[in-house]
Task: inverse folding
């Protein structure tokens, strides 16, 4: 098995069924089960399942094995509620959290406020906010105090280092836990041929979060997000306890597990035995 520090524990939510991976539900669940006895087990969080696929989940899940899932709302708020309720009595399928986009009609703060007024989940809820409007949405989430934020970082909608720095900085200052989705397959910033976008690095996000907990300003966070120097990033990570960093940066959804795992091993965040 692998030796893992707190930085990488349950860091990657398994988004195998989502683009660009687009795995079948059966293949995604089989792959998830197969990691139970591998070195990758401890870095993987729940399997992300669209609300529209929950009805067929039991057909593929093994009732003799535990399956941790998170439900992503792709059929609107009512569809997400129905999907969550349908799994409430399943003892072998555990819903760890739910995710949904903030309504796009009206001002983001007002939309998030309306959404929060309707939420009645007993598990954490991640509300996806546009990165460019993050502060307004985060203020509402912070006032509510119960829910979390989600920012899209790829593969096609990729915020600039300045934009992502502002979102991370605001989330940390307001003490709103956040997750990211898309594009973070590599430890360092990498040009992605398929999307023709420069994707952010996983080490960079961890380091920027660490700097934010030490009251680093958005310019410093943006420099860390743009850095291609692993030594600089690892040095920044060494100044803050892993638990503090992960209290803010909860996870990233990724259809790739192998790539980020191997790079976490390469930079010593995970040690293979």
Result:
């Amino acid at each position: 098995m692998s030796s893992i520090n707190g930085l990488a524990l349950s860091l990657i939510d398994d988004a195998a069924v989502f683009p660009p991976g687009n795995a079948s539900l059966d293949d995604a669940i089989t792959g998830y089960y197969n990691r139970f006895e591998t070195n990758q087990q401890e870095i993987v969080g729940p399997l992300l399942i669209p609300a529209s696929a929950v009805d067929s989940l039991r057909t593929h899940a093994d009732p003799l094995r535990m399956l941790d899932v998170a439900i992503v709302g792709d059929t609107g708020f009512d569809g997400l509620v129905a999907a969550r309720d349908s799994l409430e009595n399943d003892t072998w399928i555990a819903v760890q959290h739910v995710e949904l986009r903030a309504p796009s009609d009206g001002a983001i703060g007002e939309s998030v406020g309306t959404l929060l007024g309707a939420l009645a989940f007993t598990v954490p809820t991640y509300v996806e906010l546009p990165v460019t409007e993050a502060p307004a949405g985060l203020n509402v989430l912070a006032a509510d105090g119960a829910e979390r934020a989600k920012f899209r970082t790829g593969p096609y909608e990729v915020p600039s280092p300045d934009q992502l720095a502002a979102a991370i900085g605001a989330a940390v200052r307001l003490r709103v836990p956040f997750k990211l989705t898309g594009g973070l397959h590599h430890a360092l910033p990498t040009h992605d041929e398929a999307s023709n976008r420069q994707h952010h690095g996983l080490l960079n996000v961890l380091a920027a979060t660490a700097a934010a907990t030490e009251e680093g300003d958005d310019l410093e966070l943006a420099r860390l997000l743009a850095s291609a120097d692993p030594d600089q990033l690892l040095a920044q990570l060494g100044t803050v306890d892993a638990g503090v960093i992960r209290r803010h940066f909860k996870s990233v959804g990724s259809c790739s597990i192998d790539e980020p795992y191997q790079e976490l091993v390469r930079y010593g965040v995970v040690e293979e035995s």
Notes: Residues 53 and 142 are 31 Å apart (CA to CA). The two ends are 6 Å apart (CA to CA). The chain has eleven helices and twelve strands.
